[in-house]
């Protein structure tokens, strides 16, 4: 019942955690940086336990004029790349006009910034269905080039306003980051959220278009994504859940239906210092076949030295639906975040 409600867009999620900047170089330039150093200990003895430099980022943004802003977000680790390059005109709170390269809106977990991620790892539906590391269309870091409208509507008196509606409506190339479009077709994405009470958000999300998979780089495939999420914060407790479904098909690719969901519970026993997380992460890589579901049971914790500097621990227990072919996928990870 719960998952069904999410699937029809009754699900939700509050707005992504607000990002703050600590260094102002000038009135028109704010800068922050992030480094993630991770150590992974695998249950699978064929995999090598090791440290890796997961992220090393510089993030520039500022206001060109009272209602105009920009962002330039760079990844320096591994293969250096431009992640975000955007320009926004903000005539009203309820209407922002954005153009450039940024995250697509159809997966809530995708919208989480590495500065504020609850766990070391992203969810399976984010990685598989939202232009990330295991997506059919390659790892685009959850981003695409395009133009989109965004905004929110708030109620209350000045100084005590509360947003109750949040939306994004965009058109995208569908080919990923830092590349030209591969066809004349465009992708369309939308997200609509409502907040009936304080700190409760319900979102529906949808995306449709064409793209080229890594297995068939010369053939256009149609893709559809739909789902939703819910987020509720109450004192030191956090509840988040999301459902996402995807359909992909081309002339030579049989229709592939995939879906999944996650449920996250969070608690902050020591304010500004310790946060603990428990998550059920479900993913079905082919809904038309049996025994394809993978469930991850995740326990995580973050200890904050400062607001942006912390150490994260995570332990994943991975259970294949096909018990006869269970893979040793359990994982322990520790990640150090140094940020300014």
Molecular structure report:
Residues 1-14 have low confidence and may be disordered. A 16-stranded antiparallel barrel has the order 2-3-4-5-6-7-8-9-10-11-12-13-14-15-16-17. The protein has helices at residues 2-10, 108-111, 124-129, and strands at 23-26, 29-42, 50-65, 68-75, 81-92, 95-103, 143-155, 162-172, 187-194, 200-211, 221-234, 237-249, 256-270, 274-284, 293-304, 310-320, 331-339. With 340 residues, the protein is mostly beta strands. The protein has one domain: Porin (Beta Barrel). Strand 5 (81-92) and strand 6 (95-103) form a beta hairpin.
Task: Please sum up the structure shown.
By secondary structure, the protein is mainly beta. It has three helices and 17 strands. The longest helix has 9 residues, at 2-10.
Question: What would the keywords be for this entry?
Answer:
single chain; about 350 residues; mainly beta; Porin; 17 strands; disordered N terminus
> How many angstroms separate the termini?
43 Å
Average pLDDT level: 92
Which word captures the global form?
globular
Instruction: Classify the helix fraction into a percent range.
Output: under 10%
Q: What share of residues are in beta strands?
A: over 45%
Question: What is the CATH superfamily classification?
Answer: Porin
Q: How many helix segments?
A: 3
Order of helices and strands: HEEEEEEHHEEEEEEEEEEE
Task: Extract low-pLDDT stretches.
Answer: 1-14
Main β-sheet, in a few words?
A: 16 strands, antiparallel, barrel
Total tally of structural domains: 1
The counted number of beta strands is 17
The CATH topology name reads Porin
Question: What topology, given as strand order, has the largest sheet?
Answer: 2-3-4-5-6-7-8-9-10-11-12-13-14-15-16-17
Structural class by secondary-structure content: mainly beta
**What is the level 1 CATH name?**
Mainly Beta
Radius of gyration, in Å, reads 20 Å
Examine the secondary-structure arrangement and name the CATH architecture. Beta Barrel
